[in-house]
Amino acid sequence: MSATPALPAFLNGQPKLLFIDGKTVAAQSGKLFDSINPATGERLAQVAEGGSVDVDLAAAAARRAFESGPWSRFKPFDRQQVMLKLADLVEKHYDELALIDTLDMGGPLSRTMLGRRRAIGLLRYYAGLATSVQGDTIPNSAPGDIFSYTLKEAVGVVGAINPWNGPIGLAIWKLCPVLATGCTLVLKPAEQAPLSPLRLAELALEAGVPPGVFNVVTGFGEAGAALAAHPGVDKIAFTGSTEVGQKIVRAAAGNLKRMSMELGGKSANIVFTDADLDAAVPGAAMAVFQNSGQICSAGTRLYVQRPVYDEFVEKVAAFAKTLRVGDPLDPETQLGPVVSAEQLERVTGYLALGHAQGAKALAGGERLTQGALAKGFFVAPTVFAGVNDDMRIAREEIFGPVLSALPFDDADDAVRRANDNPYGLGAGVWSKNVSTVHRVARGLRSGTVWANCYQVMDPAIPFGGYKMSGFGRESGVEHVQEYLQTKAVILKLD
User: Fold this and answer.
1) Spatial CB neighbours of 133, under 8 Å, sequence gap ≥ 6
2) Per-residue pLDDT tens for 288-328?
3) 296 is an active site residue
4) Is residue 342 annotated as part of the catalytic site, yes or no?
5) d(Cα 223, Cα 480) in Å, to the nearest integer?
6) CATH (one of 2.60.40.10, 3.30.1370.10, 3.10.20.30, 3.40.309.10) for 268-458
7) What fold, for 18-263+470-488?
8) Which of 49, 96, 191, 262 is catalytic?
9) One of 296, 397, 474, 482 is an active-site residue; which one?
10) What is the pTM assigned to this prediction?
11) Are 265 and 444 in contact (CB under 8 A)?
């Protein structure tokens, strides 16, 4: 095993403050809270606890930058150059950013380091889109000589609220369309993992993003609620649970903000008898166990065609038992802890519920407390068999390393049962039959369908949900459109 990495210079023992108008500032209340390392249960850093007054200050800074600051005069080329410079800085400092995330939310360093390509790719992809925002000329059938065209204009001040399961990647994902379109941003990261977004704000300033364009207010629900309801915020972009998303929709009604919501999931992963089962076993396992199950589109409902159900599920359970759970700083670790004591209680509560309702744990099914894991928030990767569609472990989002395996008869049965759920974020299909793949993909009420793979992401491919999994799309050209207004201009010529 290699030596434990040294703490990043950013974690210098000093409190981490808010980032508003290009400066680090204390919360107006003076309050601090602890950010906890979930692998040890110990304090990693103290962080400013922002509240509604701090949101007011950040929103005012973002408004000034949007309407009258240097950012308002940046041309598309200028925004593109800044984004490319930021991409270079993120690439230069990515080891530091990945280490901060590992310490702050428990993702194994072997996984957080793999986010390098995506983080840099997002910034460079959206930098390309910055110079391609354009309207249309439209023939007009009104009497007379009429010239009509549309303008695409930045929405304005954006409030973004992120969860804790991928701090640096999610912060970049929210920032990219803001910079590409000329909007400004107030970001409220999750209180469980607020550190890497603060470091990203420093890098953005170094890249030439003007003060006030990118602001970060750390804190708890008060700050998020104030941002959602703020009359000076023109759009909310939220990623998180459906329950919190519903509260944000209600709070944002005051000024009818534009909104995009990427919410929860209980994704179905469907394996047919003719699939490449050797590839599907690790694919189905890591569809849920990756990031200790803390991914909204995790394939937590595994539907396996009945003739191969017993054999396949036993192999998935055997694979789960080989996964190395432990210190996320160890490069050989594959699964780290869940993010917090609260999340640990939630996940273990569902484990107890599964046992109580008669499901059989073929692997895992408990918290891990042996040796060095005792003080952390570790859960064994769990495979439940003997599950039916009505069990809560098969219907509700757990957000932990818990897989429910269910048999199905044919494609129609699989699609019907996969759709019989309030969520519709992701889904998977494993089959060598192209007709089966296309027919099932067409029938699934899900924003993304992966075929013979799972969780493959690309900056150019739109991502988002159906039903209670939200609305709007992130990534791709469609993401940029979420941050633009369309203005029609109709000119009568002499």
Assistant:
1) 76, 152, 180, 181, 480, 484
2) 999 999 999 999 999 999 999 999 999 999 999 999 999 99
3) yes
4) no
5) 26
6) 3.40.309.10
7) Aldehyde Dehydrogenase; Chain A, domain 1 (3.40.605)
8) 262
9) 296
10) 0.95
11) no
